[in-house]
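This section describes the prediction task in plain terms. A model, or a person checking by hand, is given the sequence of a single protein chain and must write out its three-dimensional structure as a string of tokens. No templates, partner chains or ligands are provided. The sample shown here is typical of the held-out split.
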Amino acid sequence: MRPITALVIHCSATRPGEDIGAEEIDAWHRARGFDCLGYHFVIRRDGTIEPGRPPARAGAHAAGHNEASLGLCLVGGLSEAGRAENNFGPPQWAALKGLLIDLKEAFPGADILGHRDLPGVIKQCPSFDARAWAAAERLNHADF
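The expected answer:
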């Protein structure tokens, strides 16, 4: 396994009524020229965690940061009007927290952050402050 220093949370930039998963995002990424889904995990609206790219393989989710990170994608993140919106439901939050607990056990030194927190990124993805959320959930503490 490659060294992992960051767990990067993304959103699919889809509206509340769009219930998609890894299969649809894989098709979008292939249409953009990727050889497969760029994220390692996709969390559907109902909280189902779908596997994407194998964790041992570098992702295609955060240019310049893929070699040492894992990409997690929450489905949603846009309002009906197409603006950034934290519209993730309780099943997604529970699944994200559980997945991050497991990943922090495997990679205790990895920082949890949002795509927008990476240097040079000018996006609102994942439509919430991932670092503040992780801190409030005590996911970035030294107990892992």
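For orientation: The mean pLDDT is 95.
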